[in-house]
């Protein structure tokens, strides 16, 4: 027994190697903070709420923006404010709170650790799906793909959306705990994902269908835990300022106009523009529900392998039918698609099946970046929106077809 424990214990050499990689990764993100990018959402929306907390008003996160402006916390829950406020205390102690680039550099370096936690959970998911541990080189490659993929850099360095690694990490945890037979723990993780990024509520659909396949009674346990976590997280802010909270999380979105990257751009100037502006989420939810039901009704049901395709398609449903597509929306699709591709790939599929998902999503990120260029001509916006819908739609159909016909084990292996 002691010999086995000794074999499993990481060597000092390995610890030093991993530590050096972590430091280099954090240093790279520190450097990214000095990129000459205009103020990002981190600077415009997230920091004002953290500064309010540092000033002794932690429940004023949603109260800092006038009703006619875009809300702080970027229409998301308060989870990211906890670590952001902690790092803010350090930044403030260093006297750097009013310096844009040093403040951003320190913040990105700190939050890069959560990217690694997300990647670690993603690699663990790949190994469970495959049923075996990845060899050293392949394991490092998987970490690199998940932690340093272009959409990850695009989201955090380009747009400052430090909440996304939290959201994806919690969703991956929810999947693992659900498959392990812990629905209440899974629901708690899902609730934390929703408190990190509101759109994570859509992932309740594939998780519930997977839970039904395993054990129907798991659904109420998961739902109660998720709802309780989300409500308890928001309750203090609601009691402090209900109007601002409701405006940020619910009513403000309907005020936003139809933007680039969305097929709804074609509705501009027509009677359908108001439908897109106020009801796009309804179409998103219907597409996500139909897609998940389609996978769940295939022979074998929503297996563990199909579940990762389902969460990918759920994230893609939002991008396909939301009224504006920003490049950072692709991060969630990228991570989930990469886990599915690497976890379910076999040599008989050919290398294209392995590299197609991350490559296509990364390419769509470049297309979305073009569409979000300020003052872009209307014809260019329309062309980019149609191209985004066609390419992402083709990927959507391909993944749905591949996952539907994929033979899969009934549960995730324990490795």
Describe what this molecule looks like in 3D.
This protein has 415 residues and is mostly helical. It has 17 helices and no strands. The chain has one domain. The longest helix has 31 residues, at 100-130. The two termini are 19 Å apart.
Low-pLDDT residue intervals, each spanning 5 or more residues: none
Taking Cα atoms only, what radius of gyration do you get, to the nearest Å?
21 Å
Secondary structure tally: strands: 0
Mean pLDDT: 91
SSE topology:
Elements: H1 2-8, H2 12-32, H3 41-54, H4 81-93, H5 100-130, H6 136-147, H7 150-159, H8 163-179, H9 183-196, H10 204-214, H11 218-240, H12 242-251, H13 273-296, H14 304-321, H15 330-344, H16 351-371, H17 378-404
Give structural attributes.
single chain; 415 residues; mainly alpha; 69% helix; 0% strand; globular
Short description:
By secondary structure, this protein is mainly alpha-helical. 69% of the residues lie in helices and 0% in strands.
């Amino acid at each position: 027994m002691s010999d086995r424990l000794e074999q499993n214990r990481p060597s000092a050499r390995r610890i030093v190697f991993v530590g050096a990689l972590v430091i280099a990764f954090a240093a790279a993100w520190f450097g990214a903070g000095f990129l000459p990018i205009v103020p990002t959402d981190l600077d415009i929306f997230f920091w004002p709420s953290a500064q309010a907390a540092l000033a002794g008003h932690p429940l004023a996160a949603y109260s800092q923006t006038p009703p006619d402006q875009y809300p702080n916390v970027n229409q998301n829950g308060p989870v990211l404010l906890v670590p952001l406020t902690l790092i803010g205390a350090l930044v403030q102690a260093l006297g750097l709170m009013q310096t844009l680039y040093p403040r951003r550099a320190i913040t990105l370096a700190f939050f890069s650790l959560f990217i690694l936690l997300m990647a670690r959970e993603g690699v663990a998911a790949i190994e469970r799906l495959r049923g075996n541990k990845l060899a050293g080189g392949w394991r490092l490659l998987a970490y690199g793909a998940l932690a340093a993929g272009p959409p990850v850099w695009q989201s955090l360095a380009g747009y400052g959306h430090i909440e996304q690694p939290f959201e994806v990490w919690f969703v991956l945890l929810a999947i693992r705990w659900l498959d392990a037979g812990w629905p209440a723990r899974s629901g708690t993780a899902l609730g934390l994902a929703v408190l990190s990024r509101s759109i994570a509520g859509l992932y309740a659909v594939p998780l519930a269908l997977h839970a039904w396949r395993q054990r129907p009674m798991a659904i109420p346990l998961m739902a109660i835990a998720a709802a309780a976590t989300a409500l308890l997280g928001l309750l203090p802010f609601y009691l402090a300022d209900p109007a601002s909270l409701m405006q940020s999380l619910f009513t403000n979105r309907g005020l936003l106009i139809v933007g680039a990257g969305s097929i709804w751009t074609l509705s501009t100037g027509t009677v359908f523009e108001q439908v897109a502006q106020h009801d796009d989420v309804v179409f998103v939810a219907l597409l996500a529900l139909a897609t998940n039901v389609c996978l769940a009704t295939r022979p074998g049901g929503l297996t563990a392998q199909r579940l990762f395709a389902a969460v990918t398609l759920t994230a893609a449903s939002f991008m396909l039918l939301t009224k504006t597509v920003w490049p950072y929306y692709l991060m969630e699709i990228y991570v989930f698609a990469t886990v599915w591709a690497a976890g379910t790939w076999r040599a008989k599929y050919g290398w294209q099946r392995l590299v197609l998902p991350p490559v296509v999503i990364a390419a769509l990120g470049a297309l979305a970046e073009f569409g979000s260029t300020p003052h872009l001509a209307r014809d260019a916006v329309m062309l980019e929106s149609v191209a985004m819908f066609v390419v992402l739609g083709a990927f959507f159909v391909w993944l749905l077809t591949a996952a539907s016909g994929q033979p899969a084990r009934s549960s995730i292996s324990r490795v």
